[in-house]
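Data deposition worksheet. Section B asks for the primary sequence of the deposited chain exactly as it was used as input, without tags or linkers unless they were present during the calculation. Section C holds the resulting structure in token form. Section D is free text for depositor observations; keep each observation to a single sentence. Incomplete worksheets are returned to the depositor.
Section A, Depositor: J.P.
Section B:
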Amino acid sequence: MKKRINFNKGFLPCSIISCVIILFGIVGFFVKGINLGLDFKPGLVEEVRVAAPVAEVTYNGTAKVTVELSSGQMDIIISGVGAANETRSFSFAEYADVQSLADAVNSIDDLTVNVKNGSYDSTKLFLNSAVSTQLSKSPLFIYPAGTSDITTDDLRAALGENGISIKQLGNGEDASYQIRMGVNADTDQASLQNDVNAKLYEAFGKENVAIVKTDFIGSSMSKSIARKSILMFICVVLLIWVYAAIRFHWDFALGSVIALIHDTLIMFTFITWTQMEFSTTVLAAVLTIVGYSINATVVILDRLRYNLKMMKEAKTFNELLNQSLSDTLLRSILTTATTLMAVLALYIFNTGSIKDFSLALIVGLLSGMYSSIFISSAFISACRKNWKPEYGVHHSLKYVSDEE
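Section C:
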């Protein structure tokens, strides 16, 4: 049997310290508030690419002519008074590069395609969604899917740092950039979008900026996401409580849930006072810690259940609890330490939301190990303060109160 450490001596002091930290977090919530990310508040979401166009199309006739690009072909739709009212389709399988495609399209009367990069793959072309695809004397630019050497830092320098999140989507030739910006309730969507685009045009040239798509998250949608996140957390905690109650005992289950709530509140205290942006990535870190913490607690509870049957010499419940915690201490330390190594690597070598995710995990991992040993155990010890050993037919120890 391993040396028994009297962990119960730290139950009361640790509980007081945790209450003070959580109270500190509640004060911070009302004083500083939570720095909600763009996932939880209304805002603009715009996906852009920055690249020089590979071709430009103009039309000098009287008909109405529009261009559509799909993954397999280019469609030229001709309509209007005196026009043939037809759709001319040019398959990318037949016209594999920009030059051959332009030569074919130029056969249409009054339509001109000016090629800038004829060797580019025609299957990777796209149009700017922010401009009309109806042709006129002003050129309509056709863009390549691949971006230039522009980085997220370049975009951030162009747009500024305040309230803007920039994320790279894809890699290499498939890369694009997602720009997210929070707004107030009275902010006009169109003016905000025009302001963002104007800064991009100024920094990189209007002809080199292509808007892939634009979305606007309304306040009702952001509130819905927040409600669903809270509901998801409550459901996770309830399911964990049901599992622990079935496998162990109601006080064991409630102790584990208290530890989970404790870890969550500790993380929110940290998030509040550091003003870390609370995004869905950070929420994922919180839920990850909920799962990790219950795993560490279940190991201790399982050992406690084993010692309830095997330690016939125990006279108090704290003896059983101290022995169970001593038996699993090395395992708790090693598991947390090895996980911390991976999370620290994420924190050191990453930036942005992943860095916030890993920092929240670090706080949660340390809190999870602490709460499994001192918080959940303190609650179980308080529930079983009147425990007395009684040997049954199978030589097991049962819970008996003083009144019994």
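Section D:
Residues 392-404 have pLDDT under 50 and may be disordered.
The radius of gyration is 31 Å.
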